Amino acid sequence: MRLFSKRALATIMLILPLAGAFAEQNMIEDFEFQPEKRWQFIGDSVMGGVSTGQVEFARENGKSYARMTGRVSTANNGGFVQFRMDLPAPLPKDAAGVRLIARGNEQRYFVHLRTSGTVLPWQYYQAGFEVSGVWAEIRLPFTGFNASGRLLRVSPRPESVKSVGIVAFGRDHDAEIEVREVSYY
Questions:
Q1: Model pTM?
Q2: Which segments constitute the NADH:ubiquinone oxidoreductase intermediate-associated protein domain (predicted)?
């Protein structure tokens, strides 16, 4: 018994490469080529905090990823470590949200977005997510991001997003998160 006709198989063979091309168009970062030139580690020591950490870039089973580790401490008015990237181009107006492929130590982490409207260092939009020890897709709609203060819009406009950060934030804990892809959908 044949499952596919030759015509159906030919159609599938034409669509598959297009699906891959569509995914690549939405990619912000896959950590393949010199990610250390685009991503920077930032800790709360910039404001007197005592959290510590680092970001490193690794490869496993043919896939590259970023790995952030550290100790988040709320002592001395601190409480975060992050790695952040400035976007090379604006996102399209019709983008619905941020998509990650991530895993980690079963803790809650956050994506912080800075926009053309977040002019002060402590302004951002934040959405939380959970990770486990296995790679998983995480989708964070822009409507689910919360502004860090009342002077900002309720949610970010995709075309105004200037940077994306992966953040361990807000409580004393050990951070260990790995991210293989950052894209939009």
A1: 0.86
A2: 35-171
